[in-house]
Write a structure and sequence with these properties.
The protein is α/β, with parallel strands linked by helices. It has six helices and eight strands. Helix 1 packs parallel to helix 2.
Length: 178
């Protein structure tokens, strides 16, 4: 489950996941159920229970700095990176190997200020989050299509490779998409 929007926002997400598991088990037992989520709804026990039904929950953490996450991802008011990380850590105990962290690396200019989440200021605390979460897998990527923000630019392959090398000291399996 992924696409144009956050799947866990659907008011019947838990029921959809239960139905999906039932259909998969009956019709395609080898199929994998994966959910890509921005992890902002982990305070809802029904969402957590539904994610625990998946074969892989892919949860986004796009920076180690809350300011960068807020500028890049524009979460709902009241978002807290610390709270989100704590909830991911708690979910990690339930998901085990079914947890993947996904991080998008980009640079952009907004309101006359330059941002780059490949900077050491963003990366050092991001690595700290990876140590706390201890995910079995990490996906590192950059944008692959145009974005509404014209100043947004891809992270270079070299930067992504360097980030992956650092992350591999913490996470057993790291994939990179350029």
């Amino acid at each position: 489950f992924a696409g144009n929007g956050e799947p866990t926002l659907h008011p019947h997400f838990a029921e959809i996941m239960e139905d999906t598991v039932d259909l998969r088990d009956r019709l395609a037992p080898d199929a994998r159920i994966c959910v890509l989520s921005n992890a902002t709804r982990l305070a809802d026990p029904k969402v957590v229970d539904a994610l625990a039904l998946t074969d892989e929950a892919i949860l986004k953490i796009d920076s180690g700095l809350e300011e960068t996450v807020k500028r890049l991802d524009r979460p709902a008011p009241g978002y807290s990176l610390e709270d989100t990380v704590n909830r991911i850590v708690a979910l990690r105990d339930r998901l085990g190997d079914a947890l993947t962290i996904q991080t998008m690396f980009v640079s952009w200019e907004q309101d006359g200020v330059a941002y780059d989440n490949t900077s050491e200021a963003d990366v050092a605390p991001w690595l700290g989050i990876l140590r706390r979460v201890a995910p079995p897998r990490l996906m590192i990527y950059t944008i692959a299509r145009e974005t509404p923000l014209q100043t947004m630019a891809k992270a270079s392959p070299g930067a992504l490779d360097a980030l992956a090398a650092r992350a591999r000291e913490i996470v057993p399996e790291v994939s990179v998409s350029y």
